[in-house]
Amino acid sequence: MKIVPLTDEDRVSVRMLELACIREYVETIIGKKWEEFDQEVRQKLGASASGSFSHYRDSGLSFVAKEGDKVVGFVFAQMIPWVDGIEKAIWVENIGVDPEFRRMGIGYMLMRRLAEEGKKMGGNVIHSSISPDNISSLLLHKKLGFLAEDRKIAYLDLSNF
Ligand SMILES: CC(C)(COP(=O)(O)OP(=O)(O)OC[C@H]1O[C@@H](n2cnc3c(N)ncnc32)[C@H](O)[C@@H]1OP(=O)(O)O)[C@@H](O)C(=O)NCCC(=O)NCCS
Q: Whole-prediction pTM value?
């Protein structure tokens, strides 16, 4: 198992894995049916969507976990120049691990690699949005030392403003 920077060769497999993780999140945490999302909406979901893949590939802060040639985990992240009064904050857009490879330390290794590389790039903090109902994600973040109690990121869609 190795953790390597995201490249173009991962595009198709990481897309499939991220969509599978999003589907799982939608069905188990939000409690909605995947079929409620039409094809156009599904295409735009996730950091691996065609509009944002290159951005995350080029951030230097997105990584995949590979078992042989198989992509079994991912983290998509980027550096934000200023947020909430903090210069150089790293934003985690999404992290996921193939269900068959969970509880093997892969999520932890992906986040550790992100933290190491982010620090080398001058990053001061990592921000990651967590649903309090997502216990695995919450416990993963806590194990890494994140302050995670009662934290959520509020959201305003400016297309409706
Ligand atoms: C959250 C997720 C990425 C964790 O990946 P993982 O590779 O299974 O996590 P790890 O094996 O590295 O676990 C690290 C720690 O997290 C905690 N943890 C992870 N999954 C857990 C679970 N199901 N139950 C309890 N603790 C869990 C444990 O503290 C674990 O350490 P331990 O094994 O020494 O007890 C994975 O469950 C996943 O892909 N979930 C679906 C997608 C998702 O929810 N992503 C998060 C969006 S913010």
A: 0.95
Residue of minimum CA distance from atom 19 in ligand 1: 136
Atom of ligand 1 nearest to the CA of 142: 29
Could you identify the atom of ligand 1 that is nearest to the CA of residue 24?
41
Q: In this structure, what CATH number is given to the domain that contains residue 30? A: 3.40.630.30
Q: What is the pLDDT of residues 1-56, one digit of tens each?
A: 999 999 999 999 999 999 999 999 999 988 999 999 999 999 999 999 999 999 99
The answer to whether position 17 is within a domain reads yes
Inter-residue contact 61 to 97 (CB < 8 Å): no
Strands 70-83 and 63-67: antiparallel
| Residue 72 placed within a domain | yes
Taking only the tens place, the pLDDT of each residue in 103-149 is: 999 999 999 999 999 999 999 999 998 888 889 999 999 999 998 87
Instruction: With respect to residue 77, please indicate whether it lies within any of the assigned structural domains.
Output: yes
**Within-domain flag for 150:** no
How far is Cα 36 from Cα 27, in angstroms, rounded to an integer?
A: 11
Find the residues whose C-beta lies inside 6 A of ligand 1.
Answer: 21, 24-25, 94-97, 102-108, 130, 134-137, 139-140, 143
